[in-house]
Amino acid sequence: MEQTAISQSPIFTLGELAEWLGTELKGDPGIRITGVGSLEDARPGDISFVVKPRHTSRLCDCKASALLIPPALGDLGFPALIVPNPYLAVARVAQLFDRPPTLASGVHLTAVLEEDVQLGEDVAVGALAYIGSSSSVGARTRVYGGALIGRDVLIGEDCLLYPGAVIMDGCRLGNRVIVHSGAVIGADGFGFAQDEAGRHVKIPQRGIVQIDDDVEIGANATIDRATFGRTWIQRGTKIDNLVMIGHNVVVGEHSLIVAQAGVAGSTQIGRHVILAAQAGISGQLEIGDRVRVGAKSGVAQSIEAGRDMMGLPALPNRDFFKIWALLKRLPEMNKELKELRANVAELQAALKDKTA
Amino acid sequence: MEQTAISQSPIFTLGELAEWLGTELKGDPGIRITGVGSLEDARPGDISFVVKPRHTSRLCDCKASALLIPPALGDLGFPALIVPNPYLAVARVAQLFDRPPTLASGVHLTAVLEEDVQLGEDVAVGALAYIGSSSSVGARTRVYGGALIGRDVLIGEDCLLYPGAVIMDGCRLGNRVIVHSGAVIGADGFGFAQDEAGRHVKIPQRGIVQIDDDVEIGANATIDRATFGRTWIQRGTKIDNLVMIGHNVVVGEHSLIVAQAGVAGSTQIGRHVILAAQAGISGQLEIGDRVRVGAKSGVAQSIEAGRDMMGLPALPNRDFFKIWALLKRLPEMNKELKELRANVAELQAALKDKTA
Amino acid sequence: MEQTAISQSPIFTLGELAEWLGTELKGDPGIRITGVGSLEDARPGDISFVVKPRHTSRLCDCKASALLIPPALGDLGFPALIVPNPYLAVARVAQLFDRPPTLASGVHLTAVLEEDVQLGEDVAVGALAYIGSSSSVGARTRVYGGALIGRDVLIGEDCLLYPGAVIMDGCRLGNRVIVHSGAVIGADGFGFAQDEAGRHVKIPQRGIVQIDDDVEIGANATIDRATFGRTWIQRGTKIDNLVMIGHNVVVGEHSLIVAQAGVAGSTQIGRHVILAAQAGISGQLEIGDRVRVGAKSGVAQSIEAGRDMMGLPALPNRDFFKIWALLKRLPEMNKELKELRANVAELQAALKDKTA
């Protein structure tokens, strides 16, 4: 199948962007915007953004053609779109200009597709990629070079599977799922029974991984398949690099799991939860909706919805910081304790003296 | 070489399973068992299992055709095999039904084998896999698609090397070794000398990794090659995803190293050791047999056999939990200390008054 | 293009090595040295090394033909080169004998090179490797089997890209850069804005990763591309396995980042910094030159140059160890506090009695 290159960044006028965002415009609506850049890196034609007033100091060297700014900032001498949340606006505008890494539609000559593979419209399969038998890939999904997909895998529409991503047999991905390079979806869970001699007898891992719409999985992250049933990452959740999700874990919708965090087997994570970097959650727990766990924290007990936790083992944030402040006072407390003992001994002696 | 598909789950009667396990049977020995499932996921034909009495509440909706149960549970109204350790029994029975992911014997047309590669009987080498020169792969081992094996590598019989696994030059794997996707066996150890200007001069890493029989290595784990000699993972040890094993480490038999844990260079780990998730062990230490290190703990000193350690730096479990309980009492202790100071000051004043 | 094998370890006389190192020789300058080994593993023909006096006890079984020793050790009965820093000397001598894993120059028949790829002199591209369009690879660089390089990538001279390494579109590597297997350079940074409903809106990551000369990146490490601009690893820095470097991070020259450590987005790390294993650094911080962060420590605030930090959150080493010592005294302190309360109550009663 022949492949033809696609890629060509679009151009919008500032007026078009204002209309599309439904927001106020200051300046010439005819200014042509060809991209997005930070205040430091923007080139002429780029639209940039200011989130906080103190960032305006960087404006003097800024080469951007226009800005996204919050109402509070007033007139900065730049053509501008006034938006309530510049960070969100820049994400949306940058998405307008964004194109996934170029990969021509069609199947590269060196890709290997086994029997009964179903490809939707405009699917692209890159060089040296592999798709096992009876798997199905939805319309416009891009399987980059060297990605490896097992058999009986279902992949939705508009997904991006980056070079070297691995999706093992039987796993299911929704639409608009992004899997970065080196991520492994569906390796065996870590399940063993011990025999009488303390040897580890493997419990075959026969379940799958299900990943719902709009989930993103970071580079070299691993999501293990369930022992039975499924490991399940629900809609809109974003998982960073080198994260480990154990077998039979469920992660609710719109949660964030930051780099190098880990969740042990069978734990249930709620919706809109944030696990900060290098956090660890023990197995078989329930973590309520909107819980936030601080970086490097270790959670060994279930957590009610809405709580912020921190530490090792994790405590409510407020308790953690109170204890932490006192920890730094420990040398002082130790000294005071010593002085008190001397004072009390003195008092005892004096009183004894008195009563003698 | 032509490839023919293999896969076809077996069927056993309940009576056959009872005989094979050497255990008591309650119910019809002719019931046909076609698979294994959890209480929630079991389908008709599956055998399921109950580990704890409180799990029996899930039985009412269970579709399993039979159960593996401990003697204490009595009659649950299901056909059942009575076993001392249901968790171990389910592992063994599930293994009866288990088949590795389908991969036809023979070498896929797109696999690359360099000169002098030796393949045992019934070896399977998948699409786009690579085996370097003078390497040898034992009978029935399956090298899945995209796995990369260097030169002068020795791989035993009945191994599974999953898609994207990497085994570097000169490494040696025993029999029944499982290496999951993205695991890297034999990358360079992290060894540098500093020159006079504080620059890091690489110490070439010329040793190998040796992995003994029945070891399993998790997805995206890394086991570095030795500087000289070997990094050595001994028989029966199971290593989870994203674990890091440094150069010249020795891990004894039947140990467990859970996800995201790390062991620094030249440390010796004993037999039947458990390193829980995200634990870290410094270099050049000796960790005795049957030591258990808690999740997220950091070990900076050698540990005698049989101890349970916890914390950062790790302490004996008992000390850790005593200190942890007192940490939570720190605000109280601080308050008491303040009150005592006031009381003592009062006493001093009173006594001074008295003696005046 | 035909490929021809290269590999043949060199031979030096002890006299040649002495001259090359510019150092004193004890023994026969004509001894032929064919390799390097540790005291335990050295074979006849190897030169070995002694770093500390207590290691001389291992000499009796040593089969090495010569030693690298510090001046303090005197005559050990072995032919020897006297060097101020044996560890540095062994690195340099071992480099003399070292050869990267064999890979014939030229492009393997099964490698895929897209349009407009520029290859320098004596470049080697292994089996099943991929290089995207408009990328350039400098002289003598070795791209091992299964390595995946995107489009518009610039790679310098004498680099080693090991099997399964991934370099994404637009990234730039200097000379003598080593990227180990499974490392992912240039995956998207973890950047999202939240919309009104708490959904995560992806901020497209349009920057690159720049890696300067003499950097080494460990197996399965991930270095994310910048949101805008670049993520930048400067000259001579060595990064170990499973390390995570977030978007827009800058790591200064000659730093060491040990296994499983992580640095969050936009943090600036100075020169000659050491982040020990499993350390974590929050985003948007400045870590000064020569800072050392202990294993498993968590850094949430910027650190001035030259400081040693430890703990979670990290404190200056001295404070950390003082607090740590007192933590272990907490049970004792608690007991003393209880006794003091009893004593003070007694004194109060006695005084009241007295004054009654």
Description:
- Three copies of one chain form a homotrimer.
- Chain A has 356 residues and is of the alpha/beta class.
- Chain A folds into three domains: 12-97, 3-Layer(aba) Sandwich (Udp-n-acetylmuramoylalanyl-d-glutamate--2,6- Diaminopimelate Ligase, Chain: A, domain 1); 106-316, UDP N-Acetylglucosamine Acyltransferase, domain 1 (3 Solenoid); 317-356.
- Chain A is 16% helix and 27% strand.
- Chain A contains four helices and 40 strands.
- In chain A, the strands form six sheets. A twelve-stranded mixed beta sheet of chain A has the order 8-11-14-17-20-25-28-31-34-37-39-40. In chain A, strands 9-12-15-18-21-26-29-32-35-38 form a ten-stranded parallel beta sheet, with no helix packed on it. A nine-stranded parallel beta sheet of chain A has the order 10-13-16-19-24-27-30-33-36, with no helix packed on it.
- In chain A, strand 22 (192-194) and strand 23 form a beta hairpin.
- The longest helix of chain A has 26 residues, at 330-355.
- In chain A, 55% of the residues are buried.
- Mean pLDDT of chain A is 94; it is low at 1-7.
